[in-house]
Amino acid sequence: MLELPDRRGLRRRLLQLFPGLAACGVGLALMVRARLGLGPWDVLHQGLSTLTGLPIGILVILVGLVVLLGWVPLRQRLGIGTVCNALLIGLVIDAVLVVAPEPDRLATRWAFLLAGLALMGLGSGLYIGAGLGPGPRDGLMTGLAARGYSLRLVRTLIELSALGAGWALGGNVGIGTLLFALAIGPLVQAFLDRLTIPAPLPTE
User: Fold this and answer.
1) Residue 107: partners with Cβ closer than 8 Å, 6 or more residues away
2) 48-66 pLDDT tens trace
3) Which residue among 2, 33, 98, 111 is buried most deeply as judged by most CB within 10 Å?
4) What total number of domains does the chain contain?
5) What does pTM read for this prediction?
6) Which of 27-36, 126-135, 146-155 is the least confident region?
7) Rounded Cα distance, 128 and 166, in Å
8) How remote is the C-alpha of 42 from its chain's centroid?
9) What DSSP assignment string belongs to 74-136?
10) Other beta carbons less than 10 A from residue 83's beta carbon
């Protein structure tokens, strides 16, 4: 069932949600172009892209929809942000990859990687802070954690599984993968502290 937000402040939340998802898509595309390694889920997406010949953005969408099926037994409720996350980020990735160059100079590749990480942190802070629902992958992890499992353990096992499968399929594992693992959490938290929209107070 789709969980609809309170109408109060919805416009503001949507105006934060969509730029956040776009920033995530641009950031991921830049990391792909950097060719220095991707985050665990995106290693999987890239590996599946190599295997199937489908664009990586389409695989981001398809994997997200499959992950959403895992929400059913967990009785997780979809938010507007969940659906938009599942559909839009992949489209943005493929659109950016059409126009973004593939740099040869190592310095430029590093610039792409660092810019991509920063945009991922900003984008995640924007869309999570909008409070319209988690992305499919985060929702799966928090749903399992709500059943009594350790969130850290669940996240580690799922992301290591995605990373291992993606690497076996030809996904790009490198220094960018390590930087993503170390930096994305602090980056998202730093932006969330500034971008979270408070929930509306209940009315009498």
Assistant:
1) none
2) 999 999 999 999 999 999 9
3) 33
4) 1
5) 0.90
6) 146-155
7) 26
8) 9
9) HTPPEEHHHHHHHHHHHHHHHHHHHHS----SHHHHHHHHHHHHHHHHHHHHHHHHTTS---H
10) 17
Domain carrying residue 17: 12-194
Place of tokens 């500034």: 194
The helix/strand/coil state of 11 is helix
Greatest alpha-carbon pair distance for the chain in Å reads: 61
Residue 1 domain-assigned (yes or no): no
In a domain, 177, yes or no: yes
Residues 131, 132, 136: CA angle, nearest 5 degrees: 110
Within a domain: residue 130?
Answer: yes
Interval 56-109: pLDDT, tens: 999 999 999 999 998 888 888 889 999 999 999 999 999 999 999 999 999 999
- Rounded to whole angstroms, how far apart are CA atoms 7 and 109? 43
CA distances from 1 to 4, 68, 77, 78, 79 (A): 9, 12, 6, 6, 9
User: What is the structure's pLDDT at 204?
Assistant: 46
Q: 3: part of which helix (H) or strand (E)?
A: strand 2-3
Burial class (CB in 10 A: 0-12, 13-18, 19+), 196: middle
How far the first Cα of the chain sits from its last, in Å, is 27
What pLDDT is stored for residue 4 in this prediction?
A: 55
- Does residue 202 lie within any of the structural domains? no
